[in-house]
Design goal:
2 domains, alpha/beta, about 40% helix, Aspartate Aminotransferase, domain 1, homotetramer, 4-stranded antiparallel sheet, 7-stranded mixed sheet, Aspartate Aminotransferase, domain 2
Chain lengths: ~350, ~350, ~350, ~350
């Protein structure tokens, strides 16, 4: 029963099949192939707008390249203190931007609010003396599996706009957010004011594939130079584009996310019935955060339940349980049986 | 009555005299001159230890170069959220380090504590996933004119040491701190565990002169390459070294700091007698932070009192009054008279 | 008949099979899986030494990360003026190193010599005034498909050593070089003085897989932080390691390189029989560089022969023909027939 | 007899006087003072155009900041292989630009030509694969004391323009060039197509003062953020501006340069009469490059003549003799007497 990470399980068979099919014959390398062109069109259709979408290899690279394009070296980027860009990418925002400041903010359930930003903004509005406010970056779904509503996003976009900043969305779990909200991809991105999206696929069935999506093509300016320079322009690009195309095809991405979201509901419900256990953030996407007595943690582990110990506070531990579309049914069944016994 | 900044007033006559005297004849450029060699010896004497001291031109450069030497590009630097390196140097730590993370912490009276650092440290101890904890940086005196006691510094050094970090001290107002504590320079630096000091002179009578002081020469490794590369190696270095030598000579630096500290006591005492006014942080160095009703602020300004409006909260304003050794006596007298009337 | 690039053709079936097999069940993400551990052991066996090998996603990243680890920001890197790191990676060495200088040198057949480096070295030995000589970087095989002999490498290593530099080898076509020289991998790397190797697989049958191989593990110091920070630490690392393991298995890498080398000999031989055509650099690996009258170029293109126009000089063009292990036999047959007609 | 460097001698008395006069009373720090405003107007008058001029502290910083503003991190900068930015600033262009490529070119008498650039340009015009040609940077006067004529500059500007690049001029010895050409400052800068000038004063009588002059203010965009971030925004800016104002006042800068140019003519003439000695580049500004038998070098040194040994080739040495406006008359007299004896 492995609930440690979205990345514990591998790739969906449909993705591997698409890779194998893309392997026929020769193709122009470095992205001038037909599959990549088709992907571009597909993304525009998915987002109901003519977008510029660039495939890259990892989520850290997607975020780094997006932020490096939006923020100048002397810029400031506002995000949640536990966001992936804040503490799980080893300073990629600084690396790709050439030294922009990442400003970490507290916020309930992994979300930041306009008020949280406004509370520190004066510190970064001292003319040339402070790093220049440049980007607000939010994760959708968040690191805690919660989901921003369209109006929450719009409020952040409004602040960004009025202060000369851009709004970036880390969509490593974007499919889970769309699936949860039952909205269109457009409604929680450009229609709500998002400028650039890191569109994730690796955590939801792809082998390794993400895309940086610019809703205003003019903002993509020099993106391709930055992608090449950072070693993210795949020579055999068709293999990257083919994964994303298969992922978007037949609404697979949303169907897969629906499954992992649903599994999270089941797992969360059952786990929270454990004595003294309680779910500490609302379960909206594919993650369950549960506070447990330490002895319960050890009991689960002895029974073969694998999960990430997020934080330990004295007698209690917060465990993170992540569900994947590829989590086998039998793992869920076994967990349920275990908890009933 | 100008109390806006340490930098509002110019250079001490003794400093200008030293520059003029250094101007005789030819000298080897770029720091291989005799004045610079003498300065090196003087710094070692002042600190009771064989130190490596490098003159640079501004405080931002001193801090940036010190931090860039101590922190790798993938490192994390912990400091107070209102520290100069945090919000007054436009991202210099990121620039000089090649992209290290600056982590801002809250703390009473402008100081940070081991506990404040420990509360966020787990976020930065996730192996290669998070920026690596590398430096603790404190200002002595702080941005608010408060002064770390030797044991407070030692506690931070202990934490730094046990977690594989270095301790940097931003000493833009170092003279004021030493003067306030009536200690030796060594006691609040290397004897308390400080690894590198940005030794300031510009805010206390120099024209433009700071020095980066390494207490362990081995840590200075590649400092000289970094200084050259950033345009901080002065060709006519003797003019920089001469300022610092004159500054250290005859205890001028401490005498000057004693004067500005004393003026701050006088000004603070008088200002706090204003109706509804109160000093919001202890006055230890040469700064007074005072909360005032807005109408009082306007009245002072109308009367010709210049100061910096640090923060406005509704009906009240926090004013910052900075005293310099060069603040004329008559300004103090005028202020006192004004407040008595 | 596509001879444009090593990357025109896709992935070997054996590689895709390895990926599919790696897909079973759950695994620890980010490189702590068993396949990656097995790869580590395999690399040590291949190189007859306990090495530290880190899988990454592209050749540009492998070179950038290797150079960024070896060269300080103030360092200088010496390479051939037409090397991949010089003009095909959009400044990746500067990006990954935080601003080291790339010094381009002329050299026959794509190779650099100790003398070429010595001729410019004094410009970079002015103490802190010039970038500090830090790395010699050579490509094996070179951009022109020529191959350094072991003694040529040793001579460069000797110079590197005596001047405090490191020797890096860009082995995007390393298999072709080993196949051509009929030597062991060790003989042209650490035994000849190479410190770090970018070990390529993508150009020779992999989907996307390279590795950075440190022969002295101590030099790898902070490599893992740099890899993570640049978005090159794959979450589902097993898919990357599986490719490399399959590539090394059963000497596939060398067999595949032998085939593409042999095809280059055939193609070179036949093309050079064209009127006024001549091969301009020795054909040693899998590339043919041929000077042709422009009308011949057009005739070939009309007949469906695709290749890269490397350089045009008036009436003549230098064409580059690259052979892949995956170049179909029928393409060769068709080309031979075409040239005979 | 010290002819080692422009920086061997100190500051002109007029400059020190200006500093002393600027020291009266309080002033707004960080460049919002009246002297800095006056300097802005003066620069516009000197250049017959409304320019944006930013004082900085060293020549390396002036060049680095200018290039960092003009070149993106993925850009390429073309310059002479012995230019100051190439080999005397320890990689400052890379540092300030965040990793642009410096491309070194050969060229007679320290100058580069459009043809030299065109010969390598194709290597940097491979779309996203190569660093993007962004800046041509020339020194006026050059590192060898030669001077570009207006039409030579215009030809480089034409090339820059037609290839989407900017033209930067390193004017560390700009006064010497204007004095030699007897032209207006405008004629060899913006009228000839220069976009940005590093205007030097330190080598010609200032204590430490340079300025970056943008002829198109729009190009200065984010310069002030970059200056602050690199520790080049002086708190007591009036002292920097006062030097430059005094330098420009009463045509001092040109008069001083006329003197050092004239001294170079005298020294060059006399030295070249030494047996087997010959001047190797035309003496146009304040430098003399002389090839001498090694025994002559030793004889001069024994007689107390100090100069820089630029290069040694077997039996002969190239010596560099630099004249300053501050070189004492008696040194010249002594040298002349020595050579006559």
């Amino acid at each position: 029963m492995n609930f440690t990470s979205d990345n514990a399980y591998g790739a969906a068979p449909e993705i591997l099949k698409a890779i194998a099919e893309a392997n026929a014959g020769a193709a122009v390398p470095y992205g001038d192939d037909e599959i990549t062109a088709a992907l571009q069109r597909r993304f525009s259709k998915v987002f109901e707008r003519d977008v510029a979408a660039y495939p890259v290899l990892t989520g850290t690279a997607a975020n780094g390249l997006a932020l490096g394009t939006l923020a100048p070296p002397y810029g400031a980027i506002f995000c949640h203190e536990q966001g992936h860009i804040a503490v799980d990418e080893c300073g990629a925002p600084e690396f790709f931007s050439g030294g922009a400041r990442v400003v970490s903010l507290k916020g309930t359930d992994g979300k930041i609010t306009p008020d949280a930003i406004k509370s520190v903004l004066p510190l970064y509005q001292r003319g040339v003396h402070s790093p220049k406010p440049s980007v607000i970056s939010i994760a959708q779904a968040t690191e805690f599996g919660t989901v921003y509503r369209a109006d929450e996003i719009a409020a952040l976009a409004h602040l960004a706009n009025s202060e000369g900043m851009r709004l970036h969305m880390d969509g490593a779990r974007f499919a889970n957010a769309v699936a949860f909200l039952r909205c269109t991809p457009a409604e929680i991105t450009w229609k709500a004011g998002v400028d650039v999206l890191s569109f994730g696929a690796s955590k939801n069935g792809a082998l390794c594939a993400e895309a940086v999506v610019f809703f205003d093509k003019a903002m993509a300016r020099d993106f391709e130079y930055r992608r090449k320079r950072s070693g993210q322009l795949l020579s055999k690009m068709r293999f990257l584009s083919a994964q994303l195309l298969a992922y978007l095809d037949q609404d697979r991405w949303l169907n897969w996310a629906r499954r992992s979201n649903a599994l999270a509901q089941v797992v969360g419900e059952r786990l929270s019935m454990l004595p003294q256990a309680h779910v500490i953030v609302p379960i909206e996407a594919n993650e369950v955060f549960l506070a447990l007595p330490n002895e319960q943690v050890r009991a689960l582990q002895r029974a073969g339940v694998q999960f990430y110990e997020w934080e330990r506070n004295g007698e209690r531990t917060i465990g993170r349980f992540v569900l994947s579309y590829l989590t086998p049914d039998e793992d869920i069944t076994k967990l349920v049986q275990l908890l009933q016994s």
